[in-house]
Input
Amino acid sequence: VQLVESGGGVVQAGGSLRLSCAASGSTRSINVMDWYRQALGKQRELVATISSAGGSISIYYADFVKGRFTISRDNAKTTMTLQMNSLKPEDTAVYYCHAIDWGRLNYWGQGTQVTVSS
Output
C-alpha cells in the first residue's frame, strides 16, 4: 500500500484546509486509516481515525480537534480526507496519512505541511 498526502499549505487562524490521502496498491487489505500530525520539536500525535468492520464505520477524534475537523473515506478505501475548519496556530504541523491492514502492517505517507498563521 502506498499513501500520498496533498492539500497542505498556509492559512490564517480561523481558516480552513482540506487534506487528502490517496491510497494505491492493495487497498482492499486496509482496515484502519488515520491522520497523525507532528509539530516541530514534538512527538507525533493521533488526530483522527476511521475504520470499518462488519459493514459499520467507526470514527475517533482527538479532543483537540473535536468539532473542528472531519475525517472521511470512500468505500473503496482509495481516498481519505481531513476537513479542517477553525484552524488555530497550534494546529501547525506536518500531517501524515497512516493505514493498517488486516495483517497489522503499518503504512505511512510522506506528510504534508500545514501552517496556521496568527
Remarks:
- The chain is about 0% helix and 60% strand.
